[in-house]
Each structure stands twice: as C-alpha cells, then as structure tokens.
Fold these 2 entries.
Entry 1:
Amino acid sequence: MDNLILKATGDERNSYRIPAEAADLSKPFNAEVAGKGSEPLLIKDNIIRFQKKTPSGISMAQRSNLLPPTAKMYENVWRKRSIGILSGEYFSFEDEAALLCDWADPQPGETIVDLGCSTAFYARSLFRRQPDATQIAVDFSLPMLEEARSFAESEKANMYLLQADASALPLYGESVDAVVCGGSLNEFSKTEKVLWETKRILKPGGRAFFMYLLKAETLAGKLLQAGSAGGGISFWTEKESEKLFADNGFETEKSERKGVVCFQLFRRIE
Ligand SMILES: C[S@@+](CC[C@H](N)C(=O)[O-])C[C@H]1O[C@@H](n2cnc3c(N)ncnc32)[C@H](O)[C@@H]1O
C-alpha cells in the first residue's frame, strides 16, 4: 500500500505524509506526523485523528453515532439486517457486499474512499475482493472507527482509518478512483457539500457507489420516516435524488431499488 498524502486544513500547500504502516491493522501504529507549516497530526492506534473536535451543527442522528454503545451494537444488531428490514425483501449482508463489489469493481492500485464508513463494512468488503487497492475509511465518529479497526483486524483487512468530516475532506482534488457510501447520505446534514467534496476528490470519470433511502410511499413507512426526519435524517423521491446527483456533477450508470432502498453507481461528469 502507498503512503497516504493528506492536505492540511486551509492551505493546499501544506500536507501530511501518512506512512503505509498506519494501514496495517495487524500492528498497532502510533505517531505524530509533522505537517509542512501545520500542527502535527496524531495517529493513535492506527486511527488518523484529523477531525478531533465534534463538528458544529450536527443532528441528533449524527450525534448518536458518536456514542460508544451505538458503535458497539451497530453492525451486529442493526446493519446486518437493515436492508431486509427497510426494504421488506430478502437481501442479505453478503448479497449487499457482492452488489457493491460487482458495481464498484475495485482494481489493483486504485484508491477508494468509504465515506461515513461506521464499521467499514464497505471498505472491508472491497478489500476482500481486491486486496491490491488502497481503502480509506472515513468517519467523524471515533467509536465507529474503533469498531471498524477491530472488525478489519479480525478479518485481516488493511486500510487507512481516517477521522474526518465528509463535508471537508483532507484529501487532494482528483486523487481517488472511487467513493462508496452506504446509508450515510441520508444522515449527512450538509448533503450538497458532501457531494461537492465527493466530486472534488474523484478523478475525472471516477466512480461513486451510493446506497441510500428514498421517501416511503406506504403510510407505515411515511410515519416511520417522519420520526427520523425530526432527528435529522433526509429522504428524497426518485426525482429529487436524480436532480440532487445530476446538479452535483454525477451521471447515473446503474440503479437498483429494493423497496425504499436505492443502490446507484455514478460516474463523475468530467
Ligand atoms: C448510517 S451510518 C452508515 C454506515 C456505513 N456506511 C454502513 O454502510 O454501514 C452513518 C455514518 O456516517 C457517519 N457520519 C455522519 N455524518 C458524517 C460526517 N459529516 N462526516 C463523517 N462521517 C459522518 C456517522 O458517524 C455514521 O457512522
């Protein structure tokens, strides 16, 4: 795996070179990386602590993911069953991993970002499919990244774990081949800013895989979503999401719906 180059906040000329050892999750890695003209960046237990403070203006839903008990239960209690429960159709965790890997199609030497990764289910799945690609799993929740590290370590999956805000990524423009994002789009409070960042970091023609929830059409679904909306979760109709992605520079390549759950593969428009 290559070293990871991060840009410091505020000035593109200031960068941090993160050693590849940080992505080897079989060994604890701790360091302070000096930045050119910026304060040192702490890497503790392999997690790159770029965003140390909780970002301001976050929703109740986002805040709940900063809590260790949420992170502990997230994958085994909720995520493994979530698509089946939300769509009302049989669709296993393994089915979702296969769909992600077939569509995102990771290639040797590529760099792929898992945005709002929680336990890094997507980055771990992509690593299994293509160990010669570099995975960068990004979340602003430290407890989630700690869980990601523990799952990835037990599966011998290597990746960079980056604590950062998806709406202000410390990655250089046109530096990644693909971005994948499972379920987090509904939760990002600054959706358009995150899509702008996604487009910015993608190479021209780069791929973006999103799984997100559409507005429900049944009464029960509408009631459930009305409750989540109060906590800061957004939902779109198919038409609204089409416009959201097109307006932010993405062209749909593939699309599949399972009830309200939508899987889409996009290309960055040049
Ligand atoms: C619904 S979970 C999705 C998890 C994961 N992608 C998956 O497929 O299981 C949303 C995650 O996005 C993270 N998140 C929310 N807003 C964020 C932001 N602005 N920057 C980085 N991470 C964010 C939360 O901490 C949480 O772990």
Entry 2:
Amino acid sequence: MIEKIAIRESVPGDVASFEKLYRDAFPDEDLLPLVRELQGEGPAVVSLVAIADKALVGHVAFTTCGIVGSAKKVALLGPLAVAPARQRQGIGSLIVREGLRWLKNADMNQVYVLGDPAYYSRFGFEPEDRVTPPYQLPQEWRGAWQSLDLGNDKQPLHGMLSVPPPWRKRALWTS
Ligand SMILES: CC(C)(COP(=O)(O)OP(=O)(O)OC[C@H]1O[C@@H](n2cnc3c(N)ncnc32)[C@H](O)[C@@H]1OP(=O)(O)O)[C@@H](O)C(=O)NCCC(=O)NCCS
C-alpha cells in the first residue's frame, strides 16, 4: 500500500517535533535557533511540514527576502530536513515542490538556496552569480549558491540578497 504523506503549514505546537527532527537530521550542526526564529517571522516565512503516521517527518522553510535596490519579491529556501529513517522516500522532494508551488502563486520571482547542487538540481536550481548572498561564502561553497527562476518575471535580477534578522548570522553562511 502506498503510504499517505500529508503536507501542511507548521504550527507553534510543532516546535518540539522540530527539536528531534533537526537533531537527528543534522547531528553536527545546530540549526534549531534558526528554525525557532523563522517560526516567529509570520507570513514572511512559508514553513511546511510532512506528516506520516501522525509523526512529523520533514520540514522546509522559505523566507521572503529582497534584493538591495530592487522591489522584486524573492525567497530563500532553508533549512530542509527529513527524519533519517524516512530519507530517500521522496519526502524532501515532495515538500520542496509544494513550497515552490506556493511561491509561484505568491508571485515570487526567484528562489535561492545554499545547498548541495547534486540534490537541488533536480528541482531546476542552477548556479547563481548575478545575485550574491548576504555574506561572502568560503571559496569551496561557491558552487552551492543556486537559484531557481519561478517564471513570474523575465528580467534577470542583480544585486545582493537582503535577508531578515534570523538569517543575519555570519556563521550560517561561512561555516
Ligand atoms: C537532503 C534531504 C532533505 C533529502 O530529503 P529526502 O526525503 O531524503 O530526499 P528525496 O527522497 O526527495 O530524494 C532522495 C534523493 O536525494 C539524494 N540526496 C539525499 N540527500 C542528499 C544530499 N545531502 N546531497 C545530495 N543528494 C542527496 C539521494 O541520494 C536521492 O537520490 P536519488 O533520487 O538519485 O536516489 C534529507 O536527506 C536530509 O534531511 N538530509 C540530512 C540533512 C541535510 O543534509 N540537509 C541539507 C540538504 S542540502
């Protein structure tokens, strides 16, 4: 039988499940402060969770950002996590694709991500060099900065990504 995965927006009561999810999925990295802060950003953040057998097994957040000197609406994808026991079952792809659909309907122009191109290329993300991240990336991470055009605007974007406070921590971009 094909298992049903439900996707919904996160709610304040999900925070306890996020603690376990992020500790398990990222044993060497503490993304919980970022996850908690993003939950407090209101409608500027689209935060989706995947539920299987009543358990929260995946999470992704998309933060509305700007480009310095431009009025275009863009978003930043992250963080993204799937419970280790449920990885490689399509859950990550499901919630990312659902989030991208929301952003397209919200007239976003582009989505940015700092992540492994081997994973994000499946959604159409490509290396980005016209819009720069808010902090200079280590040389070895340059290829991890990617963007996806959502097709809402044909004009190419240029400039520096401007991010809200939860993302204004150098360590998120440099270590
Ligand atoms: C990355 C992650 C979110 C993917 O979620 P998922 O539900 O396992 O992914 P899907 O089932 O949709 O896709 C699985 C595919 O992604 C690949 N994949 C999984 N993690 C990957 C990674 N870190 N880098 C590259 N490819 C990855 C798998 O090899 C698999 O490839 P295949 O389809 O060719 O077999 C999940 O594995 C995870 O939480 N990992 C630990 C945290 C992490 O590294 N997050 C950062 C993402 S860059």
